[in-house]
Amino acid sequence: GAGVSQSPSNKVTEKGKDVELRCDPISGHTALYWYRQSLGQGLEFLIYFQGNSAPDKSGLPSDRFSAERTGGSVSTLTIQRTQQEDSAVYLCASSLQLGRGLHGYTFGSGTRLTVV
Amino acid sequence: GESVGLHLPTLSVQEGDNSIINCAYSNSASDYFIWYKQESGKGPQFIIDIRSNMDKRQGQRVTVLLNKTVKHLSLQIAATQPGDSAVYFCAENRAAGNKLTFGGGTRVLVKP
Questions:
Q1: Which residue, among B10, B98, B101, would best test binding to A if mutated, counting the most A CBs under 10 Å from its CB?
Q2: B44/A98 CB distance under 8 A
Q3: Residues on B contacting A at a C-beta cutoff of 8 Å
Q4: How many Cβ contacts (< 8 angstroms) between chains A and B?
Q5: What is the 3-state secondary structure (H, E, C) of chain A?
Q6: pLDDT tens across B64-100, in order?
Q7: Per-residue pLDDT reduced to its tens digit, A8-64
């Protein structure tokens, strides 16, 4: 597609429920990243994928968080047993190549997750 | 830069004036830097980047300055416009690293 697409744009869930957030990167972008942005704060790295290499999961805050990327394209971020502190905007980005990719990343508009 | 929690530093600037946004980075091994602009309800958008072999780079109405000695990065916006109102983030890529690390952000408010 023309840009990075994320769905849903907003999600309200009850504490303890599982949620899945979806990211469609730009076609041809081999690297895909997930970041979390809490209210009024900066971007916290969660995980990235590059081609068929093992993902870098070093930013995932707990084992309730997981992500996968199928076919080198679409990615899903799953949060199990959601807690109120998981409330944030979850941003996905893609780039042509890891790290030093041309002009950095292209971000989606994010999914705003609210846990009540 | 580090997160500043719920209270982003805010820069109020009169329309037409120049703006300067500052960012301190922590890792001397970082060799690639980017400024992003984030408007309300949107994801961050690329503004300008600079590599560590440069100390200045200019774009359209924007200039990035890099001082490696004190690990400081700044973004200058000339003739600030209402559409420049947003949160601005600096990001660094550490040499041979694989991801960007973001600073805490600065909110710019343009007064008409």
A1: B98
A2: no
A3: 1, 3-8, 32, 34, 36, 41-46, 49, 89, 91, 93, 97-105
A4: 68
A5: CCCCEEECCEEEECCCCCEEEEEECCCCCCEEEEEEECCCCCEEEEEEEECCCCCECCCCCCCCEEEEECCCCCEEEEECCCCHHHCEEEEEEEECCCCCCCCCCEECCCEEEEEC
A6: 999 999 999 999 999 999 999 999 999 998 765 667 8
A7: 999 999 999 999 999 999 998 888 999 999 887 789 999 999 888 889 999 999 999
